[in-house]
Specification:
Blueprint lengths: L12 H24 L7 H17 L23 E3 L9 E2 L2 H15 L9 E7 L2 E8 L2 E7 L5 E3 L2 H4 L16 E10 L1 H13 L8 H9 L4 H5 L3 E11 L7 H10 L9 E3 L2 H14 L7 E8 L2 H7 L9 E5 L3 E14 L5 E12 L2 E7 L3 H5 L19 E6 L6 E5 L24 E5 L6 E7 L6 H12 L11 H9 L10 H12 L13 H13 L2 E3 H7 L7 H11 L2 H10 L6 H7 L6 H10 L3 H13 L1 E3 L15 E5 L7 H10 L3 E3 L8 E4 L5 H9 L2 E3 L1 H8 L2
Parallel strand pairs: 2-11, 19-20, 21-22, 21-23, 23-24
Antiparallel strand pairs: 1-6, 3-9, 3-10, 4-5, 4-7, 7-8, 10-11, 12-13, 12-15, 13-14, 15-16, 17-18
Helix pairs in contact: 1-2, 14-21, 16-17
The structure holds 2-(butylsulfanyl)adenosine.
């Protein structure tokens, strides 16, 4: 390297300029190695020395400070991870169906929803469900411009450079393709390519890959597209997102179009018109499964006509017009070595089976869930016997079942192999972590005993507190890089007041507490200077956060991501939400009614939220947190342009142009609430022929009434 050892005072202007150019490039390279590849070449101290030298030279020659000078870079180094892409249309998942009977119900449900159709027959497509990862390929003016993973369905990762290395994906489309098209489908790795890759790994004495799906996912999420290129990924097109002009009016026609445009499509996709035919094809594909060169985990049925798909619409995360009929799960026998009790964020005691390792459907399983204590005892959710009442004991030979990505479970025991001395398992009645009583609540509504035993320790239980923190920093909550499980446990255990993190607000005061401390985090093993700086940057970056992430991070029981999003959209700001939840604590009145009227929020969830806001310690944590963090306001999404948004509607009598289900789904999609009975709160009663007491009641109360045609005219459809 250039003049490294020469004192800065002795450098000429030309030498200084040269060295600044060198340092800019060199520091950028080290940033990339550190941040992007997790593979630094130099120590933190050496990195700092380079930076210092850059600063010194700049101080002496201010006129030479470069555009790309390392001293000008503020905050975190540019992230070399994948950019986020907001999907033009969300990427949804599919509902599952697990038996022939359920599949028939799916078909019958579609007929029921749509009611009488002029031609009496609805066509469906059936095709394999590919076990890969979904991908959205966006073409503008017939050129591939972006490729994104599904992510959380709303936002995915931009993997365009990697996708361009897959030869079977067209880079350009033919002239007849519309200006904007998003072709969606599945990226996968062929079983034969996977086997060849593993043979190569074995020959080199390197660890083997687990299965084609995970390997495909890992291969795609490589920062270096050359790695992706070497992995031979493949693609099947089966769906679409935004599209500026529809080239077909059926599912089948769309896939045929994709094929004509040069996309690979699955040859086993066919069109049928009855449940019997769909099931016949399902069993045909099931028989073919071992001979296919790609993993599949079921068969997807879709309503063929796109106009009917539009009428059927969506539930919150999946279309009503499709379902995935899954293949039965795979099972294997193994020995139950022990039962561990894990304590979760909400205090639930979950029994986890420790197993003699066993391969189930190509994956090595060492742990499996045992659900709860009744399950171990041989009792189902309503106290009825399961497994003909057989209980599960340590030492038993058990049957492990694994289906797709679901956690493996123990489904049965082999009684003939039970040791005589085996004793019934005694489920603990105290928390194995904090020793508090662990109890089974009685459900207020049903009067039944809850299946789950919970630690009553709350905030004093270390396990609950730690799990809370882990949840708080997790990917869909605050997503703080550098605060993984290991670090959370370290900070939680620390007794040093300048280091400890016991509740979420402590995360945000850490840097301030550290500034005045003698025990510096950077001197503690596992934390270097650069990693501490990165951690503080990651924390600072979250001082402003999307409202739904904030709500989700609070870890309120039953409030998952979807519910958090609903709440954020309904209340708009944290001030509004927090105040309303405290007010709703009376379990009646406007705030409580408003909460319950949110589509997708039932009473159990509503109760859990107001319970959370009744606990003074929770209020204190939230108040402290708000001193440090600002939740951004969310866009309130009521379909405000719809004339029925926010109105309560009752349908009565018979409807002639649509079925009751369809009317309800349509009204709800326009932001209305559909109720079953008429009260003072009802805004509109839609009455068809044969309407009786509900219509009378509406007139009595002076509620607006209309017939089906007037309703359709009102909603413009
Ligand atoms: S259709 C709106 N068809 O399964 C519905 N999905 O569980 C879009 N998948 O995220 C999905 N094979 O990644 C569809 N033939 C197929 C599929 C398929 C695999 C995946 C897809 C989706 C997931 C849903």
């Amino acid at each position: 390297m250039l003049n490294e050892n020469r004192p800065v005072e002795q450098l000429s202007e030309v030498e200084a300029a040269e060295e600044l150019a060198f340092l800019a490039a060199e520091l950028a390279r080290h940033d990339a190695l550190y941040h992007g590849q997790d593979a630094p070449e130099i120590s933190d101290a050496d990195y700092d020395a380079l930076k210092r030298r850059n600063d010194l030279i700049e101080q002496r020659f201010p006129a030479l400070v470069r555009e790309d000078s390392p001293s000008r870079k503020v905050g975190a180094a540019p992230s070399l991870t994948f950019q986020a892409v907001v999907h033009a249309r969300p990427m949804l998942s599919l509902d599952n169906t697990f038996s022939d009977e359920d599949a028939r119900d799916f078909v019958a449900g579609i007929y029921r929803f749509l009611g009488k159709l002029p031609d009496h027959s609805i066509a469906f497509t059936a095709e394999p469900k590919i076990d890969g990862l979904s991908m959205s390929l966006r073409y503008e003016n017939r050129r591939l411009v972006a490729a994104a993973t599904r992510g959380d369905g709303t936002t995915g990762e931009n993997v365009t450079a990697n996708i361009r290395t897959i030869r079977m994906i067209p880079q350009t489309l033919l002239a007849d393709a519309p200006d904007v098209v998003e072709v969606r489908g599945e990226i996968y790795m062929a079983k034969s390519d996977f086997a060849a890759l593993n043979a190569e790994m074995a020959a080199q004495g390197r660890p083997l890959y687990v299965n084609p799906r995970n390997t495909a996912s890992g291969s795609l999420r490589q920062l270096d597209a050359k790695v992706t290129a070497s992995r031979k990924l493949r693609f099947f097109a089966y769906a679409w997102g935004e599209i500026s002009a529809m080239p077909a009016d059926t599912q089948f026609g769309m896939v045929e179009t994709f094929k004509a445009w040069g996309f690979p499509v699955n040859p086993l996709m066919q069109r049928f018109s009855s449940a019997d035919e769909l099931l016949e094809h399902y069993h045909h594909i099931e028989r073919e499964r071992p001979d296919l060169d790609y993993d599949i985990d079921g068969v997807v049925y879709k309503v063929d006509r796109l106009d009917l798909q539009a009428r059927l619409g969506f539930r919150s995360r999946s279309p009503r017009w499709a379902t995935a009929h899954k293949f039965p799960a795979e099972q294997a026998f193994t020995r139950l070595k022990g039962i561990d009790i894990q304590v979760g964020r909400t205090g639930a005691l979950t029994p986890v089976a420790r197993l003699e390792p066993i391969t189930v459907g190509g994956v090595v399983v060492t742990n499996a869930t045992l659900h709860n204590e009744d399950y171990i005892r041989g009792l189902g959710n309503s106290g009825e016997p399961i497994r003909e009442g057989r209980d599960i004991r340590i030492g038993d030979m058990v049957i492990v079942q694994r289906a797709g990505d679901v956690i493996p479970q123990i489904v049965d025991v082999v009684m003939d192999e039970r040791a005589e001395a085996a004793e019934p398992y005694r489920f603990p009645t105290t928390c194995p972590v904090c020793g508090s009583h662990a109890v089974r609540d009685i459900n207020e509504k049903t009067g039944k005993v809850d299946a789950v035993r919970r630690c009553t320790g709350g905030f004093v239980c270390r396990a609950q507190a730690v799990e809370h923190l882990k949840h708080f920093v997790s990917r869909h909550a605050f997503d703080i890089e550098g605060l993984g499980s290991k670090q959370i446990e370290f900070f939680f255990e620390s007794d040093d007041p300048t280091l400890s993190i016991r509740t979420a607000p402590d995360i945000f005061t850490l840097e301030r507490r550290q500034a005045a401390s003698l025990t510096k985090l950077e001197n503690i093993e596992g934390f270097g200077k650069v990693s501490v700086r990165k951690l503080y940057e990651a924390i600072t970056a979250r001082r402003s956060i999307a409202l739904h992430r904030f709500i989700y991070a609070l870890g309120i029981r039953h409030v998952g991501e979807t519910t958090a999003k609903l709440l954020a959209r309904s209340y708009g700001t944290y001030e509004h939400f927090g105040a309303a939840m405290v007010e709703a604590g009376s379990l009646n009145g406007d705030a409580w009614n408003e909460l319950n009227s949110i589509e997708g929020i039932g009473e159990v969830v509503a109760r859990a939220i107001v319970e959370f806001y009744k606990e003074p310690r929770n209020l204190k944590v939230v108040a402290d947190l708000l001193e440090e963090v600002t939740p951004e306001s969310a866009e309130i999404r009521v379909a405000t342009d719809s004339p029925v948004a926010g109105k309560t509607v009752v349908f009565t009598g018979s409807l002639e142009k649509m079925t009751r289900d369809e009317a309800k789904a349509k009204a709800e999609s326009l932001g209305a609430k559909v109720a079953g009975s008429v009260s003072k709160k009802t805004d509109i009663v839609v009455a068809g022929p044969g309407a009786g007491s509900k219509l009378d009641k509406a007139r009595e109360l002076g509620v607006q009434t209309m017939d089906e045609d007037e309703w359709l005219a009102l909603i413009g459809g």
